[in-house]
Amino acid sequence: MLEFTVAVCAIVFGLRFITSFFTQASRVYRPTFLRQFYLLFWPLLCMSVGLPFLISFLYLGTLSAYELVLLTALAAVILGFSVPALILHAQYYAHNLRTTLVFDPKHNKLEVYEGRVLIPFAQRDLLRVEYVTCRSPRLFWSNYNFLRLHLASGEVLVLTSLLTNLAPVAEFLRNSHLEARQRWFCLL
């Protein structure tokens, strides 16, 4: 299974490298397979390596106390690292599945589409911008962060890291009452 995963990754990244010569840098961001693969690589790798060992729980009656303690610790580590990232990914995916972000800082352009409908706002319409990031940079879910744009109309737009790296967008909005916050777990 690991060999298959490495082969698929090599093919995907090889095709991505080859096609990068023929494409321009995109200014339109949607939840794509490669972005999701980037965010889910370590949690899924942890699950794929550790879950076969957890099948030993089926032989619960034949395990010694020492084996049971080690197996429980392994299960806690695997699930403790992977499940929070999977929960965040599912929540972000459900929230930004139909969202499209058009971001071009050189032309002072920031547009958000829900489905095919443009949500109109200008920078003066932003009352407050919350940029929430993970407190620890070394956890599997540390790449998950989001921006909340509070508009004068009362509407709140949420842009998640499933669309793109949000640090340049937050930098672009730094003069719009930007509030940077850090949490251990960036639930919406």
From TrEMBL:
Give start-end of the signal peptide.
none
Which part of the chain is the PH domain? 28-171
UniProt cross-references to Pfam families, sorted A to Z:
PH_40
Hydrolase as a keyword of this entry, yes or no, is no
- List keywords of the entry alphabetically: Membrane, Transmembrane, Transmembrane helix
Membrane-crossing segments per the record:
6-25, 37-59, 65-88
Q: Under which name does UniProt file this protein?
A: PH domain-containing protein
Organism (species): Hymenobacter chitinivorans DSM 11115
